[in-house]
Amino acid sequence: MPTLPYDVLEHILTREWLSRSTVCSLCLVSHEFYALAGQQLYHTVHFSSRELQKSQLFFQAITADWILARNVVSLHIDTDLARISQQPHMRLLIDALPGLQMLRHLYCKSVAQCIVYDARIISYIAALPRLESIHIWSLYSPAADERLLDRLPAMKIIRIDSTSRSNFYLGGSRSLERLLSRSKDTLVKLDLSGTDLSVLDTFFDDTQYSWPKVEDLTASIMTTRTPARAFPNVRRLSLPGYRGISGNALVDPTVFPHLHQLGVSDGAWDNVSGKRDVRHLLVELAGRSFLLYLTLFNGGEVSICTGRVFLPL
Hints:
This protein is 35% helix and 20% strand. By secondary structure, it is α/β, with parallel strands linked by helices.
């Protein structure tokens, strides 16, 4: 049967825009299609909180076939493994990690529980040679998170989600500070959702470091201007917390001078004079007038978020 040249097939079958169901169907066409499309199928793996059984089958497959495991570049596990009944699933995850030699991004919602269950997972994660992005959901065991952060190499992307039940990072974290120090020449994105970035002010002042490659910065609150010195080249800033930063600071052109995109919640920015050239402004309204923001920023694209609805102006 006539077939397309290998290079053409590879170009078609490895496109990121192919849906997961399409890739699965292509894998069933022939061995040749499977060899090409299978790489895409395992490239980015995301399991939701309701896909516990699927994640179990996945870990069994990549543990049995390390060639498959080497196709995994991004792994996102949103499944809660906190219950004792889920310990077999934790074991499958831990056993599969050493084979993920090409993994670049890791998020496991239950990584702290896995550490408590078997501390070897820390060594397995730290030994991943290409890991450059880590996402930690800080809720169950901050001490376990600290142990992991201390073993990680320099990262390009660090994301730590704190919640109302876990104020660990609200009080600062020596392990996080040490990881930031190791990552001062590599970090491009820092996301500390649920955290007041100002808790790191003393660390920023003591080290006198700057992170010149960081262009994307997220923190719930930033009550001082110190982070602007530490991250001088930020282009995208997100401050979802109420009163994330004063309007007077934001219109100061020396505060994040390269700012291009800003996301804020609707805070109290009264009596602010001056403008700032932000090309894209995203505001989550909570009842106050949007006119306050129109007086703050010049031109560009503006979006309003009310709940989960985005309304472009």
